[in-house]
Amino acid sequence: MTRRLLIFTLSILVILGTALSQELIIFNGQPLSELNLKAGGWGSGTLAESKDMVYRGTFSLKLISMNYYEGGRLDFLTPLDLSSYLKNPYAFLRFRIITATPPVATFPGAGGFAPGGMAGMPGGFPGMGGVAPGMPGGGLITPGGAPGMPGGGAPGMPSWTGAVTTYQLKSFRIVLFCEDGLLVSENFPFELQTVMGERWYSIAIPFNTFRGKGNGIVKRMLICTNSPQTVYIGQISVVVDNTPITVTVPTKSMTARVNTLIRFFAVGKAGLSSLRYTWDFDDSNGIQEESIGQVVFHSFSKPGTYNVTVTVSDLAGVKKPAQEKIKVEVLM
Predict the structure, then answer these.
(1) Which of 65, 149, 176, 207 is paired with 323 by a 20 to 30 Å CA distance?
(2) Burial (CB count <10 Å: 0-12, 13-18, 19+), residue 38
(3) Contact, 130 vs 236, CB < 8 A?
């Protein structure tokens, strides 16, 4: 019994050892001096140690990036050998991040017209330069956001505040300076994956998205964002993940009426891979891409039985796609 237990324990350790060997930690909250790393800016961007937000250890890396060409740099005083990962289709460069602002934010704008419109009509159009909202009214439009003139019409609509939406964080531009050239990955629309109980997002960029010439012996890494962002990086690692794609749907059969809008959605999983969802609403003429998205809406114009197919694929084109079908009975 003791011998069997020992063999079982050793087997578990071997399995764990294999799993652990699939991840190479580059940064995990330690002081950069201990890792023989150095951070700095690129263009108008910056990258520096920070204690404002910490994922593990003592520090995070605070990245202020303006665009794809102005961000931060991480210098490897001892070059990092990533050559074997570049040849592995299941290898990812993974970051644990948290943004300093919500994914979508608004900024105050420049006031608007007073809401008073033409007589008897709701308020006017937005204007520039105003600072105070207009009062209800029905007279001519008064520019500048000052109170509207009295009128006999219905109360005007509230004036526009000029609020605008910031750009979302959608992708990184990563440049690897190798001993013999550059490797670049950009425009890869990664998913912001969450971990239960954590505020930090995990994003993973497949190594097969890097283009250029380089042997994988990395001396410097540039990190830039698609739009102006302040991002805290809590961890940088290289992970090998060959988790296959799976897909589930909430129901595999349903009944609906003709010309009634139906909501379809699916949940795909594939480890670190970013996924793409495509839908076909009638497989009698073959599987086609009739709609794209994890959640889509569709109506059927004729009664009958339809097989709706969702296909979930890997954005990097490495893993085998998965499909699921939903049978829809459409009645008059």
Answers:
(1) 207
(2) middle
(3) no
Angle 69-71-74 from CA coordinates, rounded to 5° = 115
Q: Which whole number is the average pLDDT over 259-268?
A: 97
DSSP 94-133: EEEEEESS-SS-EE-------S--STTS------SS--SP
What is the radius of gyration, based on Cα positions, of the chain? 27
For residues 131 and 109, the answer to whether their CB atoms sit within 8 Å is: no
**Cα–Cα distance between 171 and 228 in angstroms, integer?**
12
Place of tokens 């940088």: 236
- DSSP notation for 180-205: TEEEEE-------EE-TT-S-EEEEE
Answer whether 0.85 is exceeded by the pTM: no
Q: Which domains does the chain have, with CATH numbers?
A: 21-101+167-240 (2.60.120.430), 113-159 (no CATH), 246-331 (2.60.40.10)
Average pLDDT value for residue range 32-39: 97
Reported confidence tier of residue 166, pLDDT bands at 50, 70, 90: low
Q: How many CB atoms lie within 10 A of CB 229?
A: 25
Tell me whether strands 253-257 and 322-331 are parallel, antiparallel or unpaired.
parallel
Interacting residues of 59 by C-beta distance below 8 A, sequence separation 6+: 29, 30, 31, 32, 49, 50, 51
Predicted local distance difference test score (pLDDT) of residue 196: 73
Report the 10 Å Cβ neighbour count for 231: 26
pLDDT in tens, 96-143: 999 986 554 444 433 333 333 333 333 333 434 433 343 333 333 333
* DSSP assignments along 66-94, one per residue: -BTTBEEEEEEEEEEE-HHHHT-TTEEEE
Answer yes or no: are the C-beta atoms of 188 and 315 closer than 8 Å.
yes
Q: Check whether 266 has a pLDDT greater than 60.
A: yes
